[in-house]
Amino acid sequence: MFNKLTDGLTVLGGAYELEDRVSWVPRGSTGYQASNCYLLTEGDAHLLVDSGMAVHGGEILDDLAELIGEGGGVSIFFTRPEMDCVSNLEPISRRFDILRLFTGGVINPFDAFDDVSRFALRGRREQIDGTRTVEGDALERSMSIEIAPGRILDVQSPLLRLLPTFWGWDGKTGALFTSDTFTHGVMERPDGPRVIDGSVEDDTTPEQVAAHLFAKYEWLPRATKHPLRDWLVETFDRFDPEIIAPSRGSVIRGRASVRHHLDLMLAALADDAA
After folding, report:
1. Which residues of 88-108 are buried (b: 16+ CB within 10 A; e: fewer)?
2. Is there a domain that residue 122 lies in?
3. What share of the chain is helix, strand, coil (3-state, %, to 5)?
């Protein structure tokens, strides 16, 4: 079931059980974790940030139909060209009118689907991470996505990434979409609270944050981490977000909770953390 986080921002998706087949969590993890996609709404305009996992596709499509109307128009922004972000592109395209599709990097999200070329989507795709010269060099640049007149999603390429990855900033809701970073939130049961805020007990530790971070970025313990810390501090000081919205794991809401989890992440990225 979708969860309205604030006016103009709704989280959709489901939960999956943690076990050793889930490659992006620490081995031995237990409990459940949310898979998230987000609907930004401004009047009759809608932008979906990622599309969620295929296993939750039916629930996500039904929730979209309730939120935007059956067959309604929606634009999509993919934060990463990985299957937990793009898996529901084709079923969404069958049921709704995809107006614009924002992607980055050289990996084409259409390659994962046999039938997507039947839809008029290729002409609606917009590249968000720069121009390519005749020599093949990619020049990264920031981009802004206009959700509706006066409502802008600012996009940037984070310093911490594997594949081409993009974060989004929605100034209206104070939400920072962090893709596969800040994904450490775990629930005890599948219907547990998927939002960490002042209303729930939060006993997250730097060690837990580090374990989830290093499960995805296995090289990170051997890396020089202070540039990442500096970049995170600068980014959070510049935006001062009220919501951290990762593609999986708990949503973190409220400035006190956001700052607490930023501190946990900075501790996890200490030079002696491993």
Report:
1. bbbbbbebbebebbbbbbebe
2. yes
3. 30, 30, 40
In a domain, 225, yes or no: yes
For the beta carbon of residue 29, count every other beta carbon within 10 angstroms.
19
pLDDT digit string, tens, across residues 54-68: 999 999 999 999 999
Measured CA distances, 22 to 18, 56, 61, 69, 134 (Å): 6, 16, 24, 34, 40
Q: Does residue 274 lie in a domain region? A: no
Helices 226-239 and 255-268, packing angle to 10 deg? 170
Q: Using CA atoms, how far apart are residues 30 and 124, in angstroms rounded to an integer?
A: 41
What does the alpha-carbon distance between residue 180 and residue 247 come to, in Å, rounded to a whole number?
6
Measured distance CA(140)–CA(32) in Å, rounded: 36
Range of the domain at 68: 3-268
DSSP string of 133-160, one letter each residue: -TT--EE---EEEEEETTEEEEEE--SS
CA distance 118 to 255: 45
If one counts the domains in the chain, the total is 1
For residue range 84-119, list pLDDT tens digits in order: 899 999 999 999 999 999 987 655 555 555 555 445
Q: Can you give 54-81 as a three-state secondary structure string?
A: HHHHHHHHHHHHHHHCCCCEEEEECCCC
Locate 39 and state its tokens. 């609907």
93 near 61, Cβ under 8 Å? Answer: no
Indicate which CATH number applies to the domain containing 240. Answer: 3.60.15.10
Residue 253 in any domain: the answer is yes
Q: What are phi and psi of 125, to 5 degrees?
A: -80, 135
